[in-house]
Write a structure and sequence with these properties.
578 residues; alpha+beta; Chitinase A, domain 3; 3 domains; 3-stranded antiparallel beta sheet; 11 strands
Length: 578
């Protein structure tokens, strides 16, 4: 069974013990006794990896090795075990310090600790929301759009106005490292909301009860108006979902002699999740520390890395057209060499979402089931579409604000008029401005790259109406936009044909030329500071930084391990191979 695609990892990207094991087909699930079997140990058992961690790790990141049938391999399992052990060994060294390798103890800031707690709350809310969605779907009930996922939430657009954070700048022929001083702010986010002295007076059971109460009161993204514990016999979807979430936690602790009290179960999960996120915080803190202290990247290093990046893609894509097509459909932003530049071209768009896409889907189902007439369906859908509007967004003195509300047709008319008689560069500036003012597609604002459309419709990844309009605009020339609204299941699109793909001359590349190649073509023409600003120079520096850190991290771990023994219990983990 082939489960996940191959990808490169570093220790800070490893996310532990989050998967539910229901329905996994890598092996037949058994009891917790099976899960707790040790598959590897380090330093006489001071650090271990068990079967449950291995299974979860393999499904998360370790399945980069599999056989021709797509089944797990011993290499994949052992690679996963090594990554898990390395992570644990390194985190222990960061927490305690290690004089033998001149590694100082990492002390986390209050902000880093608070952020870890917030990540815990976010994860739990996501799990509960998933349970609630399942319940609502079973009853064919409306699924509320959470504030976090709302297409018009403040945070959604505020984040998309943020420019790319550069680690180096290249100005007037000088490559210089960016030094930042982050202000540490205490968000006062914690699970108990009481002082350390008050906390010391409480038993573990009392702490558990307090943790549960505070979560429900302060951090739970509850959607129903019926509150927990209210005097009613009706249980809300939110409460039912929370109860199911707790039951799932209890089921994960089957065969363990632990309290089944709801507060105690919840408290143990809080503790488990916090440990995961706080470990990530240690790894992140060290990586940032290393980044500030590491050697300066040289011009020669940048140019050599860039040349190797392009040459690797030339070798891959010229020998396999399918590899190139797959890369363009799945990760076009990382493709820098194109065997035939006319096979794909660049577009962007402004999406104005329908006011109620869920209701349209409901109406479609009713029509298919003959519950409503075609005439009634058309009338109701048209009403929904006519109600489709967007509120203008803009920044004033660094603060995101909202202006007037417009229909999709009004936005198209304003844009068409603004672009009349303008040059290509002027059209790019105008369209980019309209994207930030009106677009409701989260994948466009401040994106690293634009969208790529294939010349061959068989390779389409976009909806048909969008792709066909893009190919039609291509015939009209760069800078052309839709003359009428393009409708899809998402809403109304205004599409712009940006231009063709250009091949980069990697042989004669300089720092200056790399710094002038913007990954997103709009950045070259952006005005009013609304730009991502990521260049090919930034891409190469990212690659070097990640590679240098990964090599440094691995060398440091090997020094920490030294001559201490690592024992692998292959007779245990080989059982996963069937």
């Amino acid at each position: 069974m082939k489960t996940f695609k191959k990808f490169t990892i570093c220790l800070m990207t490893v996310c532990l013990a989050f998967l539910s094991f229901t329905g996994c087909s890598l092996f037949e699930l058994d009891t917790n006794k099976y899960y707790n079997q040790i598959v590897a140990s380090y330093n006489n058992g001071k650090i271990t990896v068990n079967m449950k961690e291995l299974i979860n790790g393999y499904y998360n990141f370790g399945n980069e090795n599999y056989d021709n049938s797509g089944d797990a391999t011993i290499e994949g399992l052992e690679s996963t075990i090594k990554t898990l052990l390395d992570r644990k060994i390194f985190i222990e060294a960061l927490k305690e310090g290690n004089a033998s390798v001149n590694l100082d103890k990492i002390t986390l800031t209050q902000k880093q600790i608070n952020d870890a707690w917030q990540s815990v709350y976010d994860y739990i809310n996501k799990e509960i929301t998933s349970e609630e969605t399942t319940l609502r779907k079973a009853d064919d009930a409306e699924i509320p759009e959470s504030e976090e996922s709302s297409t018009d939430s403040h945070e959604t657009y505020e984040n998309q106005y943020s420019p790319y954070t550069k680690t180096y700048t290249y100005i007037n022929g000088v490559l210089q490292k960016v030094v930042t001083n982050e202000e540490v702010v205490n968000h006062s986010i914690d699970v108990f909301q009481i002082s350390e002295s008050e906390l010391a007076q409480k038993t573990e059971s009392e702490k558990a009860k307090l943790a549960l109460e505070n979560f429900r009161k302060l951090y739970w993204n509850q959607t129903d108006s019926i509150l927990y514990g209210s005097n009613t016999n009706t249980k809300s979807y939110s409460d039912e979902a929370f109860d199911n979430y707790i039951e799932n936690l209890k089921n994960n602790e089957t065969d363990k002699s632990l309290s089944k009290n709801t507060a105690d179960v919840f408290y143990r999960e809080l503790d488990r999740l916090f440990e995961v996120y706080i470990e990530n915080a240690y790894l992140t803190a060290y990586q940032e520390q290393y980044s500030k202290a590491c050697e300066t990247i040289t011009e020669n290093e940048i140019l050599e890395t860039y040349k190797k990046m392009i040459e690797t893609q030339i070798e891959t894509y010229t020998t396999s057209s399918s590899a190139y097509t797959t890369a363009m459909t799945k990760e076009a932003a990382s493709v820098y060499y194109h065997p035939n530049t006319s096979d794909w071209f660049k577009v962007s768009h402004i999406l104005i979402k329908f006011s109620d896409t869920k209701q349209i889907e409901t109406l479609k189902n009713q029509l298919n089931n003959n519950d409503i007439s075609k005439e009634n369906y058309n009338k109701q859908v048209e009403q929904i579409k006519n109600q489709t509007t967007v509120t203008e967004r803009y920044y004033e003195n660094g603060v995101l604000k909202y202006g007037n509300t417009y229909t999709a047709k009004q936005v198209l008319n304003m844009l068409t008029k603004a672009m009349e008689g303008k040059s290509y560069a002027e059209k790019m500036k105008i369209f980019n401005d309209y994207i930030y003012r009106f677009n409701m597609d989260d994948g466009v604002n401040n994106a690293d790259t634009c969208y790529y459309i294939p010349t061959n419709p068989e390779n389409d990844q976009m909806v048909e109406s969008f792709a066909n309009e893009s190919r039609s605009l291509r015939q009209q020339g760069a800078g052309s936009i839709s003359s009428s609204l393009v409708e899809s299941t998402y809403g109304y699109h205004i599409v712009m044909y940006i231009g063709e793909i250009t091949q980069l001359d990697y042989q004669s590349a300089t720092l200056s030329s790399l710094n002038n190649i913007f990954i997103n073509p709009f950045d070259e023409y952006a005005s009013n500071g609304v730009t991502n600003g990521k260049t090919m120079l930034d891409v190469v520096i990212e690659q070097i930084t990640k590679s240098n850190y990964a090599n440094h991290e691995q060398a440091l771990i090997e020094q920490i391990i030294g001559d201490r023994t690592i024992t692998y219990y292959s007779n245990v983990y080989k059982s996963l191979l069937g």
